[in-house]
């Protein structure tokens, strides 16, 4: 998954993993889920970004959400620990705002809910990660707003430039008037 560039091969890997994650016969396969999460954490940061955004992060989110309702505490802590490792590794990647809002942050919040009860020292780190991601999203939103404002101001600037040049064009129509433009008033 880390080194595959052939779309067909990556698609087959994705289909196989999806069957493990979505087929009801594998829903209670704790060791399988542990291994898949471990694999996502290991290969996710180096995988093709679209694969990571469209497949890995949405499935980690689903696994984190499902783990919130896990009744067996030992299984819950096992999955939460693997999710913590995976999210820690993936937090270093560039993640689009849409994926951040729809999958990464909700998955982190689910994991934080588990860790509040199971491992308070991890919960502190997760709260910090959630806050950091929320700030990134806010900053991107502010940057987009500033970008819109700079576009608007450049349009205003272009409008002023056009008006100035049209006035200069009117002045330059007669050579006598052009000479007068740069003379000192007496």
UniProtKB/TrEMBL annotation:
InterPro entries: RELCH. GO terms for biological process: intracellular cholesterol transport. One of its GO terms (cellular component) is trans-Golgi network. PANTHER family: RAB11-BINDING PROTEIN RELCH. This is Uncharacterized protein. It comes from Solea senegalensis (Senegalese sole).
